[in-house]
Every structure is written in structure tokens, then in C-alpha cells.
Design a protein that fits this description.
Number of strands: 12
Radius of gyration: 21 Å
Order of helices and strands: HEEHEEEEHEEHEEEE
Strand content: 25-35%
CATH architecture: Alpha-Beta Complex
Number of helices: 4
Bound molecules: ligand MTE, molybdenum atom
Shape: globular
Length: about 180
Amino acid sequence: MKTLLSYLLVLGLVAATAHAQTPTATDAAPRHHGTPSSLVHVTGAVKATRDFDLAAIKALAGRDTGPVDVICASGATVAKVNNFRGVRLTDLINHAGIDEQGHKDTRRMVIIARATDGYVVTFSWNELFNTAIGKDVLVAYEKDGKPLDAGEGQFLLVSGQDIKTGPRHVRWLNEIEIKREQ
Ligand SMILES: Nc1nc2c(c(=O)[nH]1)N[C@H]1C(S)=C(S)[C@@H](COP(=O)(O)O)O[C@H]1N2
Ligand SMILES: [Mo]
């Protein structure tokens, strides 16, 4: 009986260990589960909601990032890119026009970038419009001289000054929400 109990105990421990080692949804997750984004919707605290297609985005001033290493939060370099071409997120937002209710209103705003697979990242209004970081946040439509492939876009957000550029490298970007915190 004692032997049977210790056998069951060992079996239980083995099962628990195996369970603990089951991979969770991290970088091992398959990446091709977003659908290509054909529009970037600008929503929330804007004068008028706008849907930018590729032509509307290309009508804004084009910018180039130059070389960007895409570095995951884990520290791994997942891609080395010579250049992303796109437009500044601040130019896109200004084109829609922030609905600013008084001198102090923008200070409470956060900018939320969403992708078709549900991936979400945030910026603050001050970070984008009142620090150097904002100058290098682009909504890109080209990588190394070519349109983004289906696994990436057709729109991708990149924040070139981030220490780890992976997290705010948003494939399949399709919404920018300006949110006024209460
Ligand atoms: N839409 C979307 N963008 C995403 C992710 C994601 O799951 N969905 N993963 C991020 C992560 S964890 C990293 S490290 C970078 C670079 O990963 P990649 O090589 O898979 O593009 O993309 C980021 N962009
Ligand atoms: Mo990552």
C-alpha cells in the first residue's frame, strides 16, 4: 500500500511538472494569425473619425527610419531591417485633428494602437508630442523598399527609439484611438 501511495505521489509530481512546462502564449505562438490591415481607423477624441487607406497615408509627408533592429522583450534580436518607410503617427493624428477641450486637455490623453489580431500597445500624448520619441514613431507601409507582406501589414507601427523595439512594432495595425482619461 505504501509503495502504491508513493508511486501515485511520484506520478502526480511528474504530471504537475509537465503541466508547469507547457508553453504559454509567448513568442512561441504562431505569428500569422492577423489579417492584413487595409485601413487605419483614427477614432476617439478627434474632430472627425477618419479611415486612412494607403493612398491617404501616402499623401502625408513620407519618412524613413534608417536601420532598425527589432528586439523582443526577451532581448532576442528577431529582425534586422535597413529601413521602414511611412508617416509619423503625430502627422496622422494631426491630420484627423485632436478634439482639444481647453489648454490642459491633451495631457490626459493616451494613444492606443490596435492590430487586427487583437495586439494592443499604448503611448501617451506627451510621449508622442512632447518628447523626442514621437519623431521616430512611424506608421510604415514599406520595409526595405518593398510593400509589407501579408504577415506584416499592410500597415505596421514602429517606435524607433524604444530600447526594445519589438513590443511597439505592431504588425497589422488598423486602429489608432485617442483616449481622454477621466
Ligand atoms: N500584431 C502583432 N504585432 C506584434 C506581435 C503580435 O503578436 N501581434 N508580437 C510582437 C512581438 S512579441 C515582437 S518581439 C515583435 C517582433 O516579432 P516578429 O518577428 O514576430 O514580427 O512584433 C510584435 N508585434
Ligand atoms: Mo516579443
